[in-house]
From TrEMBL:
Annotated source species: Paracoccus aurantiacus
An MF annotation (GO) of this entry: DNA binding
Protein name, UniProt field: HTH-type transcriptional regulator MetR
Keyword Amino-acid biosynthesis attached: yes
Biological processes annotated in GO: methionine biosynthetic process
Compartments in which it is found: Cytoplasm
Length: 303
């Protein structure tokens, strides 16, 4: 006997509707076509599946066995079909994110909190240990999106600009540089610089400010947590450079002062990298909209 999903749907529909006419309407076929289908199915099975003498029409013992099978199989099939439709429509999927910037957690988490409310069926995750190999991991499909400040052209990878930001020097209130309002690279040659635990080429203070000028700070200390870094700066234990969006919630702290890097300041741009085939997904586009909105808001509050 060769069973198909349409056979199981037929058995279930006739049982639930109590007759061929109403079942045919539910299945969107003619009553004649349904009758032929039932007859062909019974010929395959070699037994009657329905007791036609009863009203409403009911299943025979053999038909009841098929009904139990239908009740087990069809909900699983229908759930899978619904999920696949959601994937095709961009409602269901996976968004595993890697960050090339340590400070991005301060900005990203509120964005993801908004995102999950709109797309609860998208599997969200942050892959923290991939900071130094994020873009290769994106190519290998180990992650789905990378937040990067230094996008490298890679085959099959598409980059979307998110927002501009300003790396900003944080010093203790009353620091001599506060009177000038900005810092030059040589000003940090006598300072203890506190940085996130990342390679130098991924830190704006080195890649955009100190290294091009050939300047080395007096001492470099790595600290992982933003709040700990700012506490150390306030205590006079060093200075730090952070994106302006990180510092927006500390703008009213009287123990800290915020200075531009160079007289005109430095502007950088954050990007989202993704595989080209994922760029048009509905949930990916929604994430980009939220990321841009929150980034722009951060810049306005800080500016």
């Amino acid at each position: 006997m060769h069973l198909e999903l349409r056979h199981l749907r037929t058995v279930r529909a006739i049982h639930e509707q109590g007759g061929l006419a109403r079942a045919a309407e539910v299945l969107h076929i003619t009553q004649s076509a349904l009758s032929h289908q039932v007859k062909a199915l019974e010929e395959q099975a070699g037994v009657e599946l329905f007791v036609r003498r009863s009203r409403p029409m009911r299943l025979s013992a053999a038909g009841m066995r098929l009904l139990r099978l239908a009740e087990q199989v069809l909900p699983l099939v229908e759930a899978a079909e619904s999920e696949l439709e959601g994937v095709e429509a961009g409602r269901v999927g996976q968004l595993h994110i890697a960050l090339e910037c340590h400070a991005c957690f301060d900005w990203l988490l509120p964005v993801l909190d908004q995102f999950r409310r709109s797309f609860p069926d998208v599997d969200l995750d942050i892959r923290q240990r991939l900071a130094f190999t994020a873009l290769p991991a994106l190519q290998r499909e180990e992650v789905d999106l990378v937040i990067s400040m230094d996008p490298d052209p890679l085959p099959g990878i598409h980059f979307e600009p998110l927002f501009d930001y300003s790396p900003t020097l944080v010093v203790p209130a009353g620091h001599p540089l506060t009177g000038r309002g900005y810092a030059l690279p040589e000003d940090l040659s006598t300072e203890r610089l506190i940085v996130y635990p990342m390679d130098r080429e991924r830190l704006d203070v080195f890649s955009e400010f100190l290294t091009p000028a050939g300047v080395e700070p007096a001492h470099v200390r790595q600290v992982e947590l933003t709040d700990v870094t700012l506490m150390l700066v306030a205590a006079g234990r060093g200075v730090a450079v952070m994106p302006d969006w990180v510092l927006r919630r500390h703008a009213g702290n009287p123990e800290l002062a915020f200075l531009r890097l160079t007289e005109n300041g430095i502007r950088r741009r954050a990007f989202a990298g993704m595989r080209e085939g994922d760029a048009g997904l509905a949930y990916m586009q929604h994430f980009l909209r939220l990321a841009r909105t929150d980034g722009i808001r951060a810049g306005r509050k800080q500016g």
